[in-house]
Predict the 3D structure of the following.
Amino acid sequence: QVQLVESGGGLVQAGGSLRLSCAASGTIFSINAMGWYRQAPGKQRELVATITSGGSTNYADSVKGRFTISRDNAKKTVTLQMNSLKPEDTAVYYCNAYVRALVISSYKDYWGKGTLVTVSS
């Protein structure tokens, strides 16, 4: 089965930086897009950034110019560099990947368990 494991969350002061990483493992034939989503208490989960296997990126307007997403296809990892953090960025951040587990399977969405990012003012 496919697993996504996030790391790098923690507590940081406003204006500081954090780097989140996500590693995919298990039965994986190929990975198309990967991305990061976040969910604050009482809010819906929202897109933060995505990146295709070819390197095309997409960012939420609220993080453009501050966050950078990247990936290593050989290592099956995706990274989110977060700079100039704001209290509004506080949320649980989830890794997402569109994965083809087997050559006979179609692509499906998989999610990590999340890592908490807390930005203090």
The longest strand covers residues 30-39. The mean pLDDT is 96.
